[in-house]
Amino acid sequence: MENSNATPLFRKVAVMGAGAVGSFYGAMLARAGHQVTLIGRPAHVQAIQRDGLKLEMGGQMHTVRMDAQSDPAAVAGADLVLCCVKSGDTEAAALQMAPHLGADTLLMSLQNGVDNAATLARHVPCRVVPTVVYVAVALGAPGTVRHFGRGDLAIGALPGGTQSSVPEWPTLQTLVDFFASAQVPVRIVPDVAVELWTKLLVNCAYNAISALAQMPYARLAALADIRGLQQDIVHEVIAVAAASGVSLPLQPSLDAVAKIAAGMPQQLSSTAQDMARRKPSEIDHLNGFIARRGRELGVPTPVNQALHALVKLVESGYEAP
Amino acid sequence: MENSNATPLFRKVAVMGAGAVGSFYGAMLARAGHQVTLIGRPAHVQAIQRDGLKLEMGGQMHTVRMDAQSDPAAVAGADLVLCCVKSGDTEAAALQMAPHLGADTLLMSLQNGVDNAATLARHVPCRVVPTVVYVAVALGAPGTVRHFGRGDLAIGALPGGTQSSVPEWPTLQTLVDFFASAQVPVRIVPDVAVELWTKLLVNCAYNAISALAQMPYARLAALADIRGLQQDIVHEVIAVAAASGVSLPLQPSLDAVAKIAAGMPQQLSSTAQDMARRKPSEIDHLNGFIARRGRELGVPTPVNQALHALVKLVESGYEAP
Predict the structure, then answer these.
(1) Which band of pLDDT confidence, cut at 50, 70 and 90, is reported for residue A2?
(2) I want to staple A68 with a disulfide (CB 3.0 to 4.6 A). Which of A38, A259, B119, B217 is the partner?
(3) Hey, are the CB atoms on B229 and A316 less than 8 Å from each other?
(4) Mean pLDDT of chain B
(5) Which residues of A touch B225 (CB under 8 A)?
(6) What is this structure's pTM?
(7) Could you say which of B215, B232, B320 has the minimum Cβ distance to residue A313?
(8) Would you state the pLDDT for residue B264?
(9) Is B68 helix (H, G, I), strand (E, B) or coil?
């Protein structure tokens, strides 16, 4: 599908945080002819500058020539920015980008966690679009990203955002059209907060357990005791969401958890992959977020606390002799 | 110290289950000149028959010549039997021993868990002495046992036992004297159930966590989140104990947990050692026992359930390709 407009919807796109997710979406847009700058770590950036980005997808290796920089100031001039940094880096990224973003820039948060769009909105002068990412990708060697499945996005209005920070419906539809030109399906959802919380809930139910046992999702689902543990996790997340003003329905939440093991039986969680590489994970923003938010709101979350503590314990050994 | 009686207090001792604990106490008694038969697995038994039991203790290797058999019928004729099988094997061991035990035999349960003495008492015709074991030992090569610390025992009356199954005070004092002849300190405690539950509580607070992270106790205690997790575990165990009719005081229980990390900083739990060797652990009788008993009694134990489920998940991988 080609961009049917005479002028492109967005003339310049920047991707802040060229990890697996950022590199994938950046490459998809660049392949469709859009001007995209990836902003990432030096080794990755240098490989892309030298050889283009290598996108392994559908059994083929695609070479995508595109701009890559390591300085966050490279967001300057972009009218669309995809923020793809890990949740722990959101505030720092916002502060680095803010001086270079105009009021008309559109900033999408393609991140896990339910708070990132709000965190960005506190620091940047432009509109922020919370985006739920459904893709299985991983970085390979520098300059290389591998796609395993899906790639669709869901977007909506920033929950609780100020008027100036919330994009209107026509703007969201513009994003749908723009990504459609790059074969990336985007849904506009009425309550993006529910969708972000549901993704968080699913991640809370799988990531730490898969990491601690170093086992794929089907192995978790095979044990009744683990399915029971996941239900305890779901109940705690729903209670914390409710206290945060987001109502998650129980049975669909449980179904969403069950569906993942059936749909991605061989998947190891990102936390499991980080642990296998002795790399700090996003656990502070998964079970750790639920534990922290639960404490703030007076909602007991003993199981999320336990899983968070166990992953932190393993991670405390990475620096050790 | 020598046995001061003209006739020995017990003429023949049998040890049912010559693992690390059974082999250690059997060897201590045999070294003191008592007649002891170890009953264990063929490889261990054959090594002992051939070369004697090798006891590595205090930087020295002691060779202890003693009887060893692999048939449980070898308890026949013993007037003192130490039951040292894992908790999961207690009922089977009781059924195997029962035909060979007389009414005057004294059967000590040197096992973890709070139910083993009662389980034994249901199947054997003799008196049963619940015994709390405080020793750090490990099996080495077949025929070899290594001692790392302590070695004392606590004994008491079987809680809730029938009159015929409960030893009187003079009998308990006889055990103190007998073990004293082998340099094994034995305390008679007024409420052995509290002592067994406290040991269980400490094991619940360390074993699974140390196993999942493969880390020694000091590393666990170094993280505030793990200390918080251990407190959650303690509260759940105390609630289950209370519902079981055993009153555990909170602060001494928390102190007992804290003391272990300070006293044995480099210790890996037995569950951690089993996991490292991909060998099924006693977790069903530690956090798994609390979870099961909690369900029976309507006491919520989400954290013990979670730890039990996680260890079972890891163990479910041992048979896999």
Answers:
(1) very low
(2) A38
(3) no
(4) 94
(5) 305, 308-309, 312-313
(6) 0.87
(7) B215
(8) 86
(9) strand
Residues of B in Cβ contact (< 8 Å) with A232: 302, 305-306
Q: Which residues of A touch B215 (CB under 8 A)?
A: 313-314, 317
Q: Which residue carries 């004092």 as its tokens?
A: B173
- Chains A & B: contacts with CB separation below 8 Å: 89
Mutate to test the interface with A, among B206, B217, B229, B230 (most CBs of A within 10 A): B229
A309–B contact, CB cutoff 8 A = yes
- CB of A305 within 8 Å of a chain B CB? The answer is yes
Residues of chain B contacting residue A317, judged by C-beta atoms under 8 Å apart = 213, 215, 219
pLDDT tens track for A232-258: 999 999 999 999 999 999 999 999 999
10-residue averages of pLDDT along chain B (321 residues): 55 97 98 98 98 96 98 97 95 98 96 93 96 93 95 89 74 96 96 95 98 97 98 98 96 96 90 93 95 98 98 90 47
Exposure string for B176-201, b = 16+ CB within 10 A, e = fewer: bebbbbbebebeebeebbbbbbbbbb
Residues A192-209: pLDDT tens digits? 999 999 999 999 999 999
Q: Which of these, B18, B31, B37, B28, lies nearest to B142 by C-alpha position? A: B18
Q: How far apart are CA B285 and CA B288, in angstroms?
A: 6
Task: Please state, as a whole number, how many other Cβ atoms lie within 10 Å of the Cβ of residue A271.
Answer: 25
Q: Is A225 on the interface with B (CB under 8 A)?
A: yes
Long-range contacts at B277-281 (CB < 8 A, ≥ 24 apart): B278/B318, B279/B318, B280/B315, B280/B318, B281/B207, B281/B211, B281/B311, B281/B315
What is the mean predicted confidence (pLDDT) over A273-297?
95
Contact yes or no for A269/A207 (Cβ under 8 A)? yes
Q: How many helices (H) and strands (E) does chain B have?
A: 12, 10
**B173: its two tokens:** 């004092």
Contacts with A23 (C-beta within 8 Å, 6 or more apart), sequence order: A15, A38, A40, A44, A53, A55, A137, A139, A145
- Chain A residues whose CB is inside 8 A of the B314 CB are 212-213, 215
| Residue with the two structure tokens 């009694």 | B297
Q: What is the pLDDT of residues B81-118, one digit of tens each?
A: 999 999 989 999 999 999 999 999 999 999 999 999 99
